[in-house]
């Protein structure tokens, strides 16, 4: 865990601090729009890669090519943006557990083709523009290439809502940049490779968006000692096209499994 080696250069330039502006339409569902929140899932990429390595499988391409970055906050990358369970789907007997597992493939509705995590590239192309794809590639290391994370995310969490793909992925890019510039993002960057306390992280969240927003942020960890793999932020669906604020974040039922302290993992294994 602490024997960190430098690996080969990353094919996609993750270290970009500024992105080409993309003026996409507001994110609006065309159907099944009766849900109350989104979850913005941001990976701490070095921790994600460490977790894949610890499981003993073949590391994804973006992890095999991972390298140090001059701006450590750029290790905070996009996993996805997940709409909550629509009331119209819940009324058909679907619960939260089934919705989170199957998303758009949930039966009896929306009952669309299942996106399988082991076969991401089997999902259909998203149809996003080249401009948006270029911006997404700089903040979602698993996009394109042999990983196809963007196809999987759209097939599972986007297509059944009729989201414009440019609007969906541009929203992910915008929110990622907002979090990077926030007190929590700067906290992660300034503590790169260190042990931190959850209370200190929560203080950074409170500084950014108010004390009531602390419960809006879920942290997931792996390993013993625990290291951060992902941050999940619950956002009011009515405010998804607005900047993050105390009014736009919603409490989640669980804070995650990181415990009282954890490591902000650094590059290598």
From TrEMBL:
Residue spans making up a coiled coil are none
A Pfam family hit:
Ribonuclease_T2
UniProt cross-references to SUPFAM superfamilies, sorted A to Z: Ribonuclease Rh-like
Secretion signal span: 1-24
- List the PROSITE patterns: RNASE_T2_1, RNASE_T2_2
Q: Which GO terms describe its molecular function?
A: Enterobacter ribonuclease activity
Q: What is its EC number?
A: 4.6.1.21
- Kind of enzyme, top EC level? lyase
Q: Which InterPro entries match?
A: RNase_T2-like (IPR001568), RNase_T2-like_sf (IPR036430), RNase_T2_His_AS_1 (IPR018188), RNase_T2_His_AS_2 (IPR033130)
**What are the record keywords, sorted?**
Lyase, Signal
Kindly indicate whether the keyword Lyase belongs to this entry. yes
Is Lyase one of the keywords UniProt gives this record?
yes
At the top level, the lineage of the source is Bacteria
Protein family membership: Belongs to the RNase T2 family.
Specify the protein name.
Ribonuclease I
Identify the gene encoding this protein: rna
């Amino acid at each position: 865990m602490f024997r960190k080696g430098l690996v080969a250069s990353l094919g996609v330039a993750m270290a970009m601090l500024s992105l080409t502006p993309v003026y996409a339409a507001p994110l609006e569902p065309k159907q099944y729009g009766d849900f109350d929140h989104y979850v913005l899932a941001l990976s701490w990429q070095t921790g994600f890669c460490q977790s894949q390595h610890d499981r003993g499988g073949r590391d994804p391409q973006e992890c095999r090519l991972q390298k140090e970055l001059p701006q450590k906050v750029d290790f905070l990358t996009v996993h996805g943006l997940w709409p909550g369970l629509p009331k119209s789907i819940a009324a058909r007997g679907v619960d939260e557990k089934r919705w989170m597992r199957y998303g758009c493939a949930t039966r009896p509705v929306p009952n669309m083709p299942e996106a399988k995590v082991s076969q991401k590239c089997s999902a259909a192309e998203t149809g996003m523009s080249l401009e948006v794809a270029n911006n997404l590639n700089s903040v979602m290391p698993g996009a394109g290439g042999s990983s196809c994370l963007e196809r999987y995310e759209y097939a599972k969490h986007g297509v059944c809502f009729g989201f414009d793909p440019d609007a969906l992925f541009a929203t992910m890019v915008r929110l990622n940049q907002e979090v990077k510039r926030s007190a929590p993002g700067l906290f992660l960057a300034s503590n790169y490779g260190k042990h931190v306390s959850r209370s200190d992280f929560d203080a950074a969240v409170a500084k950014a968006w108010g004390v009531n927003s602390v419960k809006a942020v879920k942290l997931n960890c792996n390993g013993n000692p625990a290291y951060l793999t992902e941050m999940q932020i619950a956002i009011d669906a009515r405010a998804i096209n607005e900047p993050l604020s105390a009014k736009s974040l919603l409490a989640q039922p669980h804070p995650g499994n990181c415990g009282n302290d954890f490591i902000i993992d650094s590059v290598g294994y």
